[in-house]
Amino acid sequence: ESLRRFRDSPADFPPVSGFAVAPSVMDLLGGDGTLAPSRWTTEPADPADAIASIERAVASLAEARDRAQQAPAVLAVRVSSLETPRATVKVGELVEAGALELIKGVPIPRDLETSPNGAPVLRSPWSRRTDDVERRVLPTLLRGKPKLTEPMDVVVMVVGRVPRAFIDLAGGHLLPDFMQALRVKGASADPVVLAALLSAPSNARFVAGNTIPRLSLLDIELPRLPAAEMATLHQVLLSVTQQERVAAELHQNALDVRDRLAEALVAGHVTLTLSPAEIDGEKGGNS
User: What is the mean pLDDT of the segment spanning 233-251?
Assistant: First the structure.
């Protein structure tokens, strides 16, 4: 029907919001030549929906800000120098001694069929992909004998040519080949402390390869920490992690407000002014 109306009167063709538009030949030649419909058509926008979404985003941002202000203070830490350098031990030595167990990742083909009875494939917390659904793969279909993770295993991978470690709290995951894991055996190490030490930027020297960076995990050297100092570091790391989560939530809510405001203004259906309370606050010198 739209094509018929266009053929009857190209110059008078009425665009159908979100569905059809008739750009001129000069517009097509003057741009990048794309014929993707999304380049030329726009979805119908409801000002009421846009305003409601902005109000919800602003309210969420205010709540996140309140939670940030109520977050516990960062633990006070006093850092002192050592008279002699601290002794170190390689991860490989700890594995040989039985203090740690190494779990290697395995290749998991992207075209491998997902099975509801399979084990979930562990995803990177630094992945930028939001369209991935949980993949479940039968371990028997993979080469070798892949081990599943257990709760509190420390998973290590390379992010931006720097080792990054995180803790698998749930366990029961398959590790892809770009991940490795260390399982703490007994009370000789602390998973929280281990993950932080493995993520030290200086450990980038153990990463090799340009196209596919590989980490020599067993060669990484860790400081030998006494039990008391390890417990102190554990507390400090938990405090820092809590601050990080609060800051990340506040950051994400602020981005959401900015994006929704920009989207509504670009659509041309809303206008923006400061509320009387904000104007009065500026006059009074408040911020």
Answer: 92
